[in-house]
Amino acid sequence: MAPPKKYPDALRAHAVRLYRESDPKPTFRAMAADLGVHHEALRLWIRQAESEAVVVESGHCASVSEENKRLRKRIADFERVIATRRDSRPIRAAMCDRMPL
Length: 101
Known about the structure:
2 domains; two-stranded antiparallel ribbon; WH-like_DNA-bd_sf
């Protein structure tokens, strides 16, 4: 079982949004002190949010985990098709051997 989270998700989202919208970018320590969180927690939240956002050619952002989920499903579909064809190959070969010429 995972340990309980020290900071709520709403605070995490708020902190990441504040960091992204601020110009110039504040230091992690200063911003963490303002929010009342540990500076390493803030740094990890921001780095994770940056790594999850991937710009797609169409211009909108997609989550890396969503993209991985979609690709895993596609791979599973391909593997299912390959297995079906591989399993039916001996049956087709046996049927062709019995067919009269």
